[in-house]
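Task card 7
Instruction: Convert sequence to structure tokens.
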Amino acid sequence: MSTILIKNVNILTMNKDKDIIEKGVVFIKDEKIADVGNEALLDRYSPDIIIDGEDGILIPGMVNTHTHVSMTPFRSLGDDIPDRLKKYIFPLEKMLVDKELVKVGAKYGIVEMLLAGVTTFVDMYYFEDEVAKVAKKLGIRGVLGETIVNFVAPDAKEPYEGLEYSKWFIEKWKDDHLIIPGVAPHAPYTNDTIHLQKAMDLAKKYDIPMIMHVAEMDYEYRQYKEEYNLTPVQYLDHIGVLNKNLIAAHLVHVNDEDLELLKKKEVGIAHNVGANAKGAKGVCPAAKMYHKDMRIGLGTDGPMSGNTLDIITQMGLVGKIHKLFNKDRSLLPASEIVEMATIGGAKAIHLEKEIGSIEVGKKADLVIMETQSINMQPIYDYYATLVYSANTSNVDTVMVDGKILVENKKLKYVDVMEITKDLKNIQGKILEIVKKL
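Output:
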């Protein structure tokens, strides 16, 4: 590995004190951050590569804590259909999802994330091994789980067959430095108690994440109240599934007792504000979660739900939606939102010792946001600029494990035109099926 020195950047360290270093310098060696400081470091090192940040903003790589990246080929389909999951998405998946679609969708979606400064993503879908292979090849960090459901699925001829796939998948990827395999029962309402417990047993055995949609749907909330007189969160706790291995996406329908349980059990939380707003699901009490020091990060959900895979868009939505919903302009200042996008996401997936902040010893997952574009000036508050002014076009440089994947706003190792062509080929097949629905 080459040694790299990044200079002339304004560093948002996202450490516990949120230290900001203007005209900062970062030295990278052996895939990790070896030194962080001011311009005095320039005389200390003779690196192989020098990157001039040109007065940009250096942040930790952003973490997308929840998505279904291979659903990219379905983006913009049926956006305004009521009860779309059961009436539209599940039927489409049954007819169309195969290894090729998953592979092409993963390529396109991962490229979109990298160009937007996402360096780690949490994914759950079918044929998840295809997602893992693409993620590994493209150099992004992935926490990936095979979807488990109580019905026949695209890669399962029997209900719950995804559990067996998960065992094989975990064994294959458990020692990889970029891919963290997980187990991913779709939701409490698509899995019975015994299979939820079996999935968690697998997570505990290998000490890996269990990824699941939780308390997302209003009918889910009603079901568990009627059957058990418990909320979905309380039900999961009752059956022994609520613990630090769980990454729970959405958590829209939760009460104060649920929040206490989630905090006590150190559950990771994926807040998907954009997808929840578009789907009219409701507003997760993310501000309460943050101020209770819970493990909350930001997610996009699948590209068919939120139509984007970048966290920059989510940051602006978090600020605006929560301020509006709570009628409080001061709620969730920009620094707290950037925290959720970076170290908060790392905490949600229990990787805060490795990623999420710019500190010596952590992995060199870094993003330079350029500040020369017209939308980025003037800057009085770096955090506010990122949350309310920046967009994905301002992402200049992206590295994972000290490897530069995006440089001067372009991917170094991927032909975008080629993967776009593959996506359009699949689009034609999808259109033929949609016409019959």
